[in-house]
Amino acid sequence: MVGITAMVGAGDAQAAPAGKPNAGVPLSSVVYGTGCTYPVTMAVNSSGWVAFYEYKPGLPPRFVGRDLPDGALATITWVPRYIGEKYLYGMQNGVKSPMTKVSVRQGYGSNGLCFGI
């Protein structure tokens, strides 16, 4: 029984994000807009909640959402609130994913026709 418990514990320790967050392709190709909505997905190799964060160096991370993965993919809707260069990352089972750099500018439009300039 001790061997089985040790094996299960070792498997859980390896459970982590399997990639970095993907914020899709914004309409303006490399810039995201404040107030616009973007699906953010991240591959995972384990079950359990995945929390997503937006991080700007020098400031504390901002929680932007969480998801219980469907299969090997966790997805949230991200709404950038502030202009600047930022990073998105996810956390699952206490393990942080690699970061994705994003540029956020002023958003214009609404619904599916929102973009950043």
Kindly describe this structure.
This protein has 117 residues and is mainly beta. Helix content is 11%, strand content 41%. The protein is built from 1 helix and 10 strands, in the order H-E-E-E-E-E-E-E-E-E-E. Strands 1, 3, 4, 6, 7 and 8 form a 6-stranded mixed beta sheet that branches. The protein is globular, with a radius of gyration of 16 Å. It starts with a helix and ends with a strand. The relative contact order is 0.28. The N terminus is likely disordered.
Helical content class:
10-25%
Radius of gyration: 16 Å
Question: How many DSSP H or I helices?
Answer: 1
Mean pLDDT: 84
Q: Bin the strand percentage.
A: 35-45%
Order of helices and strands: HEEEEEEEEEE
Report the sheet with the most strands, covering strand number, pairing sense and barrel closure: 6 strands, mixed
Cα end-to-end separation: 60 Å
Strand-pairing-aware structural class:
mainly beta
Label the overall shape.
globular
List keywords for this structure.
single chain, 117 residues, mainly beta, two-stranded antiparallel ribbon, 1 helix, 10 strands, 41% strand, globular, disordered N terminus
Briefly say what this structure is:
With 117 residues, the chain is mostly beta strands. It has one helix at residues 2-14, and strands at 31-33, 38-43, 50-55, 62-67, 73-78, 84-92, 95-96, 100-105, 107-108, 115-116.
